[in-house]
Structures
1.
Amino acid sequence: MAALQNDRFLRALLKEEVDRTPVWMMRQAGRYLPEYRATRAKAGNFMDLCRNAELACEVTLQPLERFPLDAAILFSDILTIPDAMGLGLRFETGEGPVFDKPVRTLADAKKLYVPDMGSDLGYVMNAVSTIRKALNGRVPLIGFSGSPWTLATYMVEGGSSKTYSKIKAMMYDEPMTLHHILDVLADSVIAYLNAQIEAGAQAVQVFDTWGGVLTPRDYQEFSLRYMQKIVDGLKRENEGRKVPVILFTKGGGQWLEAMADTGCDALGLDWTTDIDNARARVGDKVALQGNMDPSILYAKPERIRDEVAHILAQYGKGTGHVFNLGHGIHPEVNPEHAAAFINAVVELSPQYHV
């Protein structure tokens, strides 16, 4: 593998000195880019794009050609694991993901298994190694997975949900069934992320998109407990350097201390928690990633620049900050506004690292 030319993202995650605050965007390879839309049209559909290593590599690199980003993130989907379990995943226009075989009973749960990373999910590892080779040491590559709780919400609900009625009914009435599902998922995520690391991912992030819909007690029992299991099971070093682990619970700002106690290297923050408050609470235990409201990118470039300046000042001097949005970039955003955001971080952050 080629030597890494820009490692400030990895260094910041490990709270080592950097010359400026590194920056990347969740969903940076996505529908807001016309070149992404063209490649997706060529692929035919979203999952075919994920399964084609050359096209997945092409879209992963597209934002790096436009913007001075400090990391690339594997182009894939969080539902690859449940898809590999044979639950019949498809994407309906205007409806999002749908599972033909939702997991509703203990009998359903007992049919679940850890997919084979070579045969069932080999296309993901193929994409990781293809992207890593194409990056040629330009920036690090991030691998990722959905959290067990978040994956379970889709599997039990049968798709997206506003109320989480089916999974919450299971959680309250049949907690052992849900624990069985989450346990198989945690084992699957450990195997999946370790396989990505072996294929070339240099950092990994666990996306707990729906952890914030839980009560504090239920979050600890049904989400954080399984992310703890994942952190404990991950390969933390590869190719002679540490592989940082980022945990991100959307809506999880009230649980940062408990998340930091898992032994992860960094926490992702959404925009509902001020970063100075988060830094005061977790101290030097973990790095922080975030946390600009993605909707600010609808505003004028000068307003975007002001917001970047505000967040940098909030975090203050020193390392341990990776600048990012508080969630993924929206499809309707003008790419020029994304450029204004990233360029502002590059230009304004060096003063905090002298």
2.
Amino acid sequence: MSIPQRDSFLPDLCGLRALFLVVSVAQLLAFMLSVTRTGFGPLAWSELALLSLYVQWIAMSAAAVLCLARRYLVRLPALWESVLAYLLVLLVAALVAELAWWVLAPREGEAALLTIAHAEFRLRTLLVSAIAAAVVLRYFYVQHHWQERTAAAAAARLQALQARIRPHFLFNCLNTIASLIRIDPLRAELAVEDLSDLLRATLSDARQLVRVEEEFELVRRYLAIEALRLGERLQVVWDIDALPQHLAIPQLSLQPLVENAITHGIELLPGGGVIRIYGRVAGKILELGVSNPVPPRGRLSGRGNHLAQDNLRQRLAVHFGPAGELRIEQTPGRYCASVRLPATEAPDAHRDR
């Protein structure tokens, strides 16, 4: 039976980013100790070099021990993890101090590099290491919980944004289904199934990314419902043959654009029109867009449209930051809305290859 593991406040000290932080703090500490001991006199550089070697020796050894012990520490309660990590650093400092004394201790007939007693050398090392370890471990702890709070706030914001998605077609769809129940019960049943899938998507975990093909399937279900109401007025062209279907996007990234294309374009044209749905990858950027006709001198208007677009912009920003954006282009008689985001594979894409 495997033991469930929680997130550890200790970063992966085998990684370059955390290791760089440890090395930087250690070097800053060596500089401070050197300045307090010798100031900026003629012996300052040699003193700094010796202290840097010693401090980095302790810091790198402690980082290596914590890196190896992290898999075991994470199984413990947070308090015990903190205490044991702290004690491990002090143990490493004590061992390095003993080894350094053995190497550098004054010997008869040789120039002395150390001019203090053994006990004092060991005590100074432990005191300085205790203070530095407390500061660094506290920083890791605060940073970890700040990241957790940030992630939780982003997740809550995503859920709130997704909960605000209220498809404009809902009441029309229910009316369409009601009218079909008596004359075509089978089509009414299929429409109910499509509607349930769409509504289920609005209640899913907003933090999860889905495959492009899953979003396309959701859009097809939505279009199937609208086709019951609009009939031949609604024509759709899919230009996605060259698009990899395993790329990851936030769910309900394309459906709101298609909904706006119908509500503010196709419905306002007596003869309907053609909606073009396209997708392409340029470099490392995935672009998905919807192009639709609009009435002469018409524009997408209405509060619902702006809310849907603002909602989508905010969800893209939460997921991708500045790399996720919604672009709007309008020409006489035509309106195009597209989302651009980093082209990354969905988490489960490798399983189907």
3.
Amino acid sequence: MRHPSLLGLLLCTVAFTSTAFAATCDVDIPRQPRETFDKAAFHLWLPDDVPAGPVRGIAIVLDGINVDGRPQWQNFARDHQLALVACYFATEDLTDFFHYTKADRGSGRALLNALAALGQQSGHPEFEKVPLFVMGLSAGGEFSYNFACFCPERVAAFVSNKGGGFIIPPTDAVRAIPGLFIAGAKDQRYRAASRKFYEPNRKLGARWCLAIESKCGHNTANANDLALPFFAAVLASFDRPAAERTGIVLDLDQKKLIAPGIPPATASLTFWFPDQSLIAVWNTFLNNPH
């Protein structure tokens, strides 16, 4: 189920310069019986200095329902030696709430197959093993969480921007994945209520953070101002010993840092951060009047 489909349509182009080359590839993964997507298309972009060696990881970007989010995030990928894969899932049946956002119904398989195929064609076999940083808006935000549930061993961090309907209960393995939930204060109620899903899992020690974007509804808005530093902080933690990657936790009511892990019963609302520097970024994001 997780090997590249021989029927995938793959196009790979390479642009040469005097010192390096940049590669872009596109692959379509065919739908299998009973899977809940009609189209699954993926675009790979590699920074100029990456094709000569292995990548550190892959940034996965998804947009809203039936929106092609493939051309995005190139500067971030270049700065951190990442491959960038933008996804386009589409479905004709919008009456099925779960459609392709539920990764265990086919879209997760399609993404894994696409990564294997793109890695093979671009000369990067490590695509089948390197950590993934998954960011999605709306339906893409639901997929980013659901894919972490579907394949927690591959996901290094995920961001769900203006997602909702987090139906799949997380396991301990999923709660151990750094996650960021961004909600719009003026979004629809079921999306803006991310706290009802977030808070009980934080009480179980989930390495998750929540941000409510003021004056924003159902749009990207300034989410990347927080999402990109969040991913960068998780990447930076890879350079520290495993015992030092536990992050830090902010107790909002007491306005103090507490030990990572399961918070004390007296703490009502807490937030996990990969490092202390991200707290300032998070605070600025929350107080951005726009």
4.
Amino acid sequence: MSAPARPARSVSPARRRAQRVVARAPWWLAVLALAVGGLLWVYPFIWMVSASLKSSVEIFGAGLSLVPETPVWENYSRAWGDAGFGVYMLNTVVVTVATVVIVVVRCALCGYVLGRYRFRGSRLVMGVLVATLFVPTGYTIIPIVKLSLELGLLNSLAGMTLALSGSANVASILIYAGYFRQLPKELEEAAVVDGAGFLRVFFKIMLPLSMPVTATVALLTFLFTWNAFFLPLVFSFSRPELRTLSVGMQAFVGENATDWSGMAAAGVISIVPIVALFLFLQRYFVDGIAGAVKS
């Protein structure tokens, strides 16, 4: 004879709430950890914006306080006009846009060939490209300067652009190759039947389809070129009017003192275009990385 069933034990509402809190504890811990990490990551940038509105005395006297006593907007006018950041901004925009265009077209063509075609020596070409990742940038500066000097491009924005866009950009090529490899071959076959050549197929069909990857490569190249310091310093050493924003930061460092508030204002001016571009291209950036990894 079976034992009688025990009546179900009722659970109080307070205990149910406690059980829900315990069950959701890992989620709350993850959110808390991400919030703390995000605050630690963003705080220096927030502090830089705050310092750009303070005097140099208040920067050191206020400690970690983020609220300026009296906003000093003259720091921005001093950085833009007196320090020449208006000219440096124009130089940086010209060099960066030209470099992005050159790198995107070159990497897209190279990635398209390596991703869609199989030819003798393709593995060797890919191996040589990957090997260039291990060459330090400082080792190539002497041949770059020597070649630019022979071509008469050393003290010019054109020479600076060619030097910045002349690197291998292996990561961008691999992203393009991985994306083009997953596209169906029927697209090219239909275009060839209609009489389209290699360049027409690439520029009219394949390149427009790779917009997420193009946005990713453009953003990465933009960040690299916008923040470049070593090559722009070499190419503008004898002509200060050719300085970019990163090189122009040295204008706030004097022999006996440093204009910290002006440097902070210049830093804010330099970082605003990067943030705006990322906010505009972030959706394409994520899609491009996801597509390349998926392939």
